[in-house]
Amino acid sequence: MDQKHQDAHNELKNTTAEATRSGNKALIKPFPSRFAITLSFSSYPCRCRRNHRRLCIRRLQSTRSSEVMGKKRKEREAQSDDDDSSKSRTKRTDSDKLVVKPQLLPSMIKNKDKRSAVYAKIKHEKKVEKRKNAKAREALENRALELGEELPPKKIPRTIENTREADETVCKPDDEELFAGNDADEFSSILTSERAPKVLMTTCRFNSTRGPALIKDLLTIIPNAEYYKRGTYDLKNIVEYANNKEFTSIIVVHTSRREPDALLIIGLPNGPTAHFKLSNLVLHKDLKNHGNPTSHKPELVLNNFTTRLGHRVGRLIQSLFPQDPEFHGRRVVTFHNQRDFIFFRHHRYVFETKENKQIDANDKSKDTEDGKKQLKGKIIARLQECGPRFTLKLTSLQHGTFDTKGGEYEWVHKPEMDTSRRRFFL
């Protein structure tokens, strides 16, 4: 060992001994190089040499890392100072300075009370702005009417329904071919009141309590409907039996995992057969504040069945109900098609007399005999839901009665047909 490394080794030994006696570890200094550390271990025993090497290497690495981090920190600070100086040199004047306030979202606030207050404030500001815009639009319309000018065009919101893909099968009011086909289709005898609708209802072979419960609700909705227990009979035998008994339609409620999941409607005697997926079922007894329907024939409302396929499905649904509704029963059954989902609702009209209290401004005395408080009746109408409610989605339409082997399908929904969110078939 040369004199230089020997001096460094002696200095380290003295410093380590002094640090051990005083308990101050800051006095321990690393060697200037790993070569010096390696050469200094020859005079130590085996264990001391190993521990001493670990201590020296750890101190050397920490010193080097601190030097590197300090250098990087100084470079970042110098760079930030340069950026600040460049921003100050290119500072705009007060007239054209762009001030961007950070947007405070309610979800960024952790305090619940403060978050609710901020949300209420934002909601109130939006409401005031909306009212202000409505008043400005109304003022423009009134001014246009006074001057005899054209009214400003109303803004129509852009929705999926009004931006649907163009379909060649959309029915038009002046389509003579469509009306000519209506006079010769399978439902013409029922829809022209030549035959009265008569519906047979049944379930699948293995059903739960929810299936018959749905049929019980449907029996109160569809007049001239009868329930037959399925048993072990095949559906073809049931179709043959229903034809002999002069039924016009068959409704089969399919159950899976104790929940109705499909609805099959078969037109008799020549079809067609429509298979629907059933979802979001809420029975009559599960509806809150539901009404109790009467036995009158309901009024039927069909909405948004615009294509040829939708027109055919709508006529199939229409053939289940009589064509002479009893309006004094105040019942209405709605099949609303939206984005190929058919929403079913059952309501009854309710007419109520609302009493408004009016104070006579001329009489300021406390005596009520002169009619200070007059009760004035106002008749209002509202809808009360009777239930049930569910959603249907057409999966297939088969020509003729139910036949899984040799049946000819008019339309079948396949996953590859859903090429766009704006493509609809009904």
From TrEMBL:
Q: Basic and acidic residues bias located where?
A: 1-12, 75-99
Where in the numbering of this chain does the Brix domain appear?
197-403
Q: Which GO terms describe its molecular function?
A: rRNA primary transcript binding
Name a biological process GO annotation.
maturation of 5.8S rRNA
User: Known InterPro entries for this protein?
Assistant: Brix, IMP4/RPF1
Q: Name one GO cellular component term.
A: nucleolus
Polar residues: bias regions: 13-23
Q: Where is this region: Disordered?
A: 1-25, 64-99
State the name under which the record lists this protein: Brix domain-containing protein
